[in-house]
């Protein structure tokens, strides 16, 4: 099996949790995809980076990140997966709100102004989190080239309606789940 199949197995084995849950979007579901069980796993995290780099290989960007917390391990996995290939890829973290002390930055890490960046998220239902990150990135004068997620729960239309290309490594159907 390749990276894509291996990561799908980790997701279905570790991250899919059955039971009634309320999502961050406010919607209810009979199952939850807890991707932090994968993005923070010693064997799965490297796969996350390689799969998302492959998914976005035809997009030109030199920094990756999104709204904390879901995007943070995704971006770091991509940064670490890129390094052995010789690719210089920075990561950044978008805070939910600006900081009131220190440098008062909303986007932490290397400067994003004037750079081509990729917004990422672990999973997205409405696109709300990733679009909040995109808004902050645009305010910081970054050029957002697109949005990539590990698992799409339905956010594609909202992200594309905001004028951004959107890609997901897996759909719910790929994981044997029904929306």
TrEMBL record:
Residues involved in orotate binding: 125, 153
Pfam families documented for this protein: Pribosyltran (PF00156)
Pathway(s) of this molecule: Pyrimidine metabolism; UMP biosynthesis via de novo pathway; UMP from orotate: step 1/2
Keyword annotations of the record: Glycosyltransferase, Magnesium, Pyrimidine biosynthesis, Transferase
CDD domains: PRTases_typeI
Classification via Gene3D superfamilies: 3.40.50.2020
GO MF annotation: an example: orotate phosphoribosyltransferase activity
Top-rank EC class of the record's enzyme: transferase
EC code(s) of this entry: 2.4.2.10
Role, per record: Catalyzes the transfer of a ribosyl phosphate group from 5-phosphoribose 1-diphosphate to orotate, leading to the formation of orotidine monophosphate (OMP).
Protein's name in the database: Orotate phosphoribosyltransferase
Organism: Micromonospora parastrephiae
Gene name as annotated: pyrE
